[in-house]
Amino acid sequence: MTVTTIDLYQILRTRIGEKEAKALVEFVELKVQVKLKEEMNSFATSSDIITLKGEITNVRDELHQVELRIEKVRSDLIKWMFVFWMGQISVTVALVMLLMK
């Protein structure tokens, strides 16, 4: 028993009796140990961290690939917009010239 457990035992012994106090303190200790084991299972280990770092690196690489594709699509879009504008201007100029004759 730890110091806190001994203090708890002494307080409970005077109020509920020795046998019941000991049983209650043991029950509390067991519950604390179970909870501690559950909490320790949720901690990240060094292998978890290494795995996570690898996954982050993969996501960064994929993000870089997406950025490159976006840049390519953007340049293609600008190129086709220019072609469309030139076509529209040509048609507009041709219509104006046709109407002016």
Q: Report the structural category.
A: mainly alpha
Global morphology = rod-shaped
Helix content: over 70%
Low-confidence stretches: none
Q: What string, H for helix and E for strand, traces the elements in order?
A: HHH
| Beta-strand content | under 5%
Number of DSSP strands? Answer: 0
In DSSP terms (H or I, runs of 4 or more residues), the helix count works out at 3
Name the average pLDDT. Answer: 86
Query: How is the main sheet built?
Result: none
**Rg result:** 38 Å
Distance between the termini: 109 Å
Describe the structure.
This protein is an all-alpha fold. The protein has a domain at 1-43. It has three helices and no strands. Helix 1 (3-16) runs antiparallel to helix 2. The chain is rod-shaped, with a radius of gyration of 38 Å. The mean pLDDT is 86.
Task: Give a concise summary.
With 101 residues, the chain is mainly alpha-helical. It has helices spanning 3-16, 18-41, 46-100. The longest helix is centred in the last third of the chain and has 55 residues, at 46-100.
